[in-house]
Amino acid sequence: MKLGLAIRELHRSESALARDLVAVADRHQVEHEVHHVANDLLRWSHGHLHELAAAGTSFGLRLRADIGTSRLAPARRSLSRLAVHRSTPGILLLADLRRLHRKAAGVSLDWELLAQGAQVAGDGDLLALAQRCHPQTLRQLTWANSMLKVLSPQVLAS
Amino acid sequence: MPSRDGIAEPWGTRAPYGPGEVWPVRVDSRFVDGVTADDVDRWVPTASVLHSNGDGMDLAVKDGRVVGVRGRADDRVNHGRLDPKDLFGWDATSSRDRLTTPLVRRDGELAPASWEEAMSLVVDRSKELLDEQGPSAVGFYTSGQLFAEEYYTLAAIAHGAIGTSHLDGNTRLCTATAAAALKESFGCDGQPGSYADVDHADVIALFGHNAAETQAVLWSRVLDRLAGPNPPRLLCVDPRNTPVARAATVHLAPLPGTNVALMNAILHEVIANDHLDHDYIDRCTVGFDGLVEQVRQWTPERAAQVCGVAAGDIRDAAALVGRARRLMSTVLQGFYQSNQATAAAVQVNNLHLVRGMIGKPGAGVLQMNGQPTAQNTRECGADGDLTGFRNWANDAHVTELTRLWNIDGIPHFSPPTHLMQMLRYAENGTMRMLWVSATNPAVSLPELRRVRSILSQERLFLVVQDIYRTETAELADVVLPAAAWGEKTGTFTNTDRTVHYSGKAVDPPGQARPDLDILLDYARRMDFRDRDGAPFPPWHDPESAFQAWQRASAGRPCDQTGLSYALLAERGGVQWPCTEASPDGTERLYADGAFHAHPDDCESYGRDLVTGAPVEPSAYRAMNPEGKAMIKAAEFVPPHEAPDEEFPFALITGRTLYHFHTRTKTGRSKHLRAAAREVWLEVSTADAEANGIAEGDLVEVRTPRAAVRAHVRVCDIRPGVLFLPFHYGYWDADPERARDRAANELTRTDWDPVSKQPLFKTAAAALRRLEAGTGPSAAPTTTASAPTDPNVPPTAGGPGAAVLEDLDPGAAR
Fold it and tell me: N or C end of chain A: smaller count of CB under 10 Å?
C-alpha cells in the first residue's frame, strides 16, 4: 500500500501552497482584496495540514500540523508598502497569482489521488477527509484564476 | 390643523390600524414663516432624496422659490407622511454657498472659469489619455442621488462610447450588498417584497436595519401597526439600542462581524424544528441540502460563544421567525457594511426560501437601499452592472445592448471595476482621470488619509461635479456646478421598486446646470458617434432620455415600458415592472414561485460567498438549469481586525436620523444641523464607568490608522462596542482643526469579496479620556443615541420647526 506516500506528497504540496498564500498576502499588502482573501484561504490550508498530520499518524508518518513563519515576512510587507504608488508590482502580482493557481491545481490532483487510494483501500475516514477538503482546494484554485482575470487587463493595458 | 415639532417628534402622531387594513392617511406639511398652502402658486411633484424610502411629496413654489413641502396623500409609499429630512432638507438647496460657476485649478488654487474653459479642459484631457493609454486610463465615480436618466446616460457614455470598465456609484458603499444578495438568491436584482407587507405581517424581522432612523416613514407605518389591534411582533438584530430594538419582542445585539454565525444558528433552529415549507423548497429552490449540512454544527450554544449573545435569545429569535405565518424581513447596513456582508444578507433570503415566504402579502424580504436613487444606479448600470439587469458574462445580453445602442461593441472581457479597485488603480498611477459626480469620497470612503493622498496626486486628473464645494471638490482640477433636486427633471426608484417623477420647481443658481446636460455636453464635445455616424447618446433632454431608458428596460425584470412622465406626475409612485400587461405596476415579485434565475435570463451567475470568485456559466447551468431560487450556505469567517489588548473595543460607524451622508445638504438646513450639530462617540454605561468617562467628556478614539476626537454620549449600546456617526467632515469645521473629526479616518480598507462593499463596521479601537465636557454631547436624544443620563435636554426643533398634520385630509379640503 502506498497510501502513506500519497498523504506525504499531499502534505508537501499543501504546505507549499500555504507558504505561497502567506507570501502573496504579504507581498501584496496594498492589493487589499488579494491580501485579505489570501489570508482567509490560508485558514483552509492550515485546516487541511492539521487533518493530514492527524491522518498520517496511522501510517507511521510524523507530519507538521503548521507551516511555521517566514523570516522574510516583515521585509515582504515593507516592500509592498514602499511600492504603493508604482504600477510595476502589477506584473509580479500576475506572476504570483499564476503560481498560486498552479500550486492549487497540484494540491487538487493530490486530493484526487488520495481519494482514489482511499477507495481502493476501503479507508472510509481517509475518503471522507478528501471529500471534505478537496472542494476548498478547488475554491482556492478558482479564486486565483478569477483574480488573474480581473486584475490582468489593467496591468497589461497600462 | 394639529401640528407637531418635526424634530422632536420624528414619527408624528399615531394612526393605528389592524392587519389587512389600509394604512390611514396623514398629510404632513411645512411652509416657511408667513406662508400657508393657500398662498402657493404651484405644486411640483417629487419624492424624498435624503433617504431611500421614496416618500411622495409636492414642493410648494411661490414667486419663483420653494416655500414649503407637503406629503402626497395618494402616494402608495407614505400615505401623506414626511420625515424630518423630507420636511427640513430642502432648505439647503437655497443655501448661499451653492456652486454657481465652474472652477478650474490655476497655480494650485481653484478659480472661477467659464463652462467653455472647464469643459475644454475635461475633453482635452480625456482625448489625450484615450490616445495615450486607452479606456483603462479613465474612470467615473457617481452617486445614489442622481436621476435614472442621468445614470443611463453615464452608463452609455462610459460603457458604450468610451468602453471603460471603470464605472461605479457610491451605491458601492450603501447598497451593493443588497444587489449582490438578491443576485445570489434570485439570480437578479429587484426587491421581492413591498412596503405594504407591513400591513399584513405578523412578524417583522429587521436585520442590521435601524428603520426608525434610515426610513422614518416606514417606521411610522410599523408604529401604527404596533398601536393597532393584533400587532406584529418584531425581531431586531443590532448592537445598538435603537428605537427598533426598544419596540422589539426579541433583540439580539451580536458582536460586530459575527452575523453569519448568528444567522447560521437561527437557520439551524428553524431546520431542527422543521419550521419548513417542504413543498416550496422542492418546487422552487435548489441548494437546500448544502444549507442543512452547513448549519448542522451551528447550534445556538456555538453561535452564542462567537456572537456574545445568549443561546436562549437565539432560540427565541428562531422561534419567532420560525412560527411566523406572514414574515417580513428587512436588511441594511448592520449587515451590508459588516464582515461577510453578502453571505449574511443571503442567509436572510434563505430564511424566507426555506419557509416559503416570498411573494405573498406580509411575506417578503426587502434588501434595503440606503440612498434615494440607488436602485437606478443599479438598474441603469451606473454601478458597473450591465444596463437593465443584463448579465456581463452572457454574450447574448451584451449583444442585445450593443444593438440597442447601435454601437460596435461593449468590452466585457473582465467584470466591471468596483470603486475600491478603481481607487487602487489611481493609487498605482494606472488610472489617470477620475470624474466624480454627486458624491464626496474625501469624507465617505474608508481610511481617509489614504483617500486624500490618492485624490490629491498631481498625476490624477480629478473632475468633481457637485452642488457644493465639498471636501472632494477642494482636491479637484475641474469643478462643475450642478443643478439640485427641484431644479431639474427626472425619475427615480425607491427601495420597494416605486418609481417617482421629480419635476423642476425652480431654476438652478448662477450657471449651474442639470447633471444630464453636463453629461450630454461632454458627449457632444467628445463627438461620440454610433455605427451610422449619428451623435451618441442620441437623446437630448430628460424625457427623451427616459424613453430611451424605457426601451433598454423592455423585457427585463425592471421593465418600465408602461410608465410615462405624465402618468407618474398624475398618479404618484408606481412599482416596476410596469408594462402593457401590468399597467398599475407590480406589488410583489415572484408571487408565482418563478424567478429571473434561468441561465439565459439571470443577471449574474453568482459568486463564491467566501472567496468572491465568479461562478462560471457552465457551473451555474449545471447547478440551476431550471432557474429556481438558490439557497446558498456560507461558512463563518472571522473579521480581519478584532479587538485585542491595545485596541480593546469594536468600533462601528453609522448614521443618525437627522443627517444624510457627509451632511453636504443636511448640514446646511438650519433645523437638521441643530438637531445633531457635532460629532459624538457612543459608549456604553458599563464602559464609561470602567474608564471614568461621563456624558459630554472629550475623548480620543484611536484605531491602528488614526485618531478622532469627539464628545461622549453615554448610552445603551452593547458594552465593548463604540459607535461613531460618519456624517462629519471638514467643510464646516474650524479650518485650524486637525483631520480628527471624520469617522472614516479610523476605518479600514477592506471589503466584502462578493459585493465589494467596504466594511465600515469592522475595526478595533482604543479609547482615551482627554478632558471633562462643558455639557452633554450633541447626540440626539430621540434616537439610538438616547442618553442614559435623564438630565440631558431633549432634542427639539423649537420655533420654526412646526409641522402641520392632517389626519383627515378628505374633510379638510
Answer: N
